[in-house]
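--- STAGE predict ---
source: upstream dedup step, 1 unique chain passed
mode: sequence only
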Amino acid sequence: MPLNETIPLISVVIPTLNEEKYLSLCLKSLKNQTFQNFEVIISDGGSTDKTKKIASKYGVRIVAHPNITVTLARQSGIDIARGEIIVGADADTIYPQNHLEKIVKDFKEKNTRVAVGGGGVFEKHPLWLHLGWKIAYALLALLSSIFKTAIYIPAFNLSFKKEAFKRIDGYKTYLDFGGDELDILNRLRKRGEVYFDKNLICYPSSRRAKGGFFSIIVKHTLIDYYLNYFLAKIYKKPIIKGKPIR
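--- STAGE serialize ---
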């Protein structure tokens, strides 16, 4: 039965690794959603802090696999998901009350949509990160409108139909960076429309700004992310081992 004729079940999948500082705020924002037909799955990569204890207080499902990458963690969560729609989320991100409601609406507007997503507004400190990403996501929205497909969607705000995800055989889990964004988007486009909703906004923490402008642009983005992504695509394994930002 098409999505526009049903109330779909959503599975929110959150990869975690030592997220005790942020996880409670994330789960609280999900608990208060206007759309309530959903489950939350925590896919933990071996946390040694109170992450799993915090998660258990919210009654979420927990799957634990020590020493796994974020892409493999997302895959492990989806493997046990019951929902028709998979909503990607990050533990350090806060989601507006109508976030899931908007996602369902976006999918119901067109049955040919296999994925939807939007941007993120980072905390106002540091100011350069806040303003930089606001400009970047405005540009992405414009380009996505021009080219009639999403150019880029961050994993913390990417949702897709589980059926479409299965048809492309899930994530390429050897892609330590970019596997849950660049690669999966490229393959989902072959199955239907990937829609960028400029009004689908969430609020990630600014921990990605640790080390300053040079660190986030050169080290994290150009080296850890893009260089590792393209090398891993060639050699079918991660070449540069990135460290989680905590």
